[in-house]
Write a structure and sequence with these properties.
Layout (H helix, E strand, L loop, with lengths): L3 H22 L5 H20 L12 H19 L8 H18 L13 H22 L26 H20 L2
């Protein structure tokens, strides 16, 4: 077993695949789903890049501050977009967490990812609790509910008639679940 390098590559694959699916979801006919999918694609690809094992690629010194700016801007954009509703506060929290991890890596002495000792332990712990709870709640929402006799079971995607495979809410939840699990893994290495 190769230890952290093998798990790092699995994390890269999971996040890259999730980001790719989110890019495909951006073709949805529903404006809200397109907007959410764009932010999630950025998160998926950003997490994939951050998870590349340090033995394979050590980012240049300017990369971590650049990631902090990109994800800080994404967090502010998501927060601005959600100012009227609180339905997707997870997006600004996720982007803010990525900015936090990038800042922690930028100021850490080794500037390598996955070596521990970076970040503020209390904030890292709070984020770990948030994402662990998010993973559990999202996982429960993916469990199919038994149909009630006498009622027609419809889903959000199937009830409107002809909706694309990118508009399926359970696939979007599965992507969010995968990224939540990846975020927990990344925060554990801090």
């Amino acid at each position: 077993m190769h230890g952290p390098e093998a798990s790092g590559w699995l994390l890269v694959a999971l996040c890259a695949a999730t980001g790719a699916y989110c890019l495909l979801r951006m073709r949805s006919s529903v404006e809200e789903q397109r907007r959410a999918a764009g932010g999630e694609a950025l998160m998926g690809f950003g997490m994939a890049v951050m998870a590349v094992p340090a033995a394979v690629f050590t980012p240049p010194s300017w990369a971590w501050p650049a990631w902090a700016v990109v994800f800080g801007a994404a967090a502010l954009h998501a927060l601005w977009a959600e100012r009227a509703s609180s339905r997707h506060l997870h997006h600004p929290v996720g982007a803010g967490s990525m900015a936090y991890m990038a800042v922690a890596m930028a100021v850490s002495p080794g500037q390598g990812h996955g070596h521990g000792g970076a970040g503020i332990p209390v904030l890292t712990g709070i984020l770990l609790l948030y994402f662990a709870g998010y993973v559990l709640v999202t996982g429960v929402r993916l469990v199919p509910v038994a149909a009630v006799p006498g009622r027609l079971a419809t889903t959000g995607a199937g009830s409107s008639g002809a909706s694309g495979w990118g508009d399926r809410p359970e696939l979007a939840r599965a992507c969010r679940l995968a990224m939540g699990i990846a975020m927990v893994a990344m925060l554990l290495t801090m």
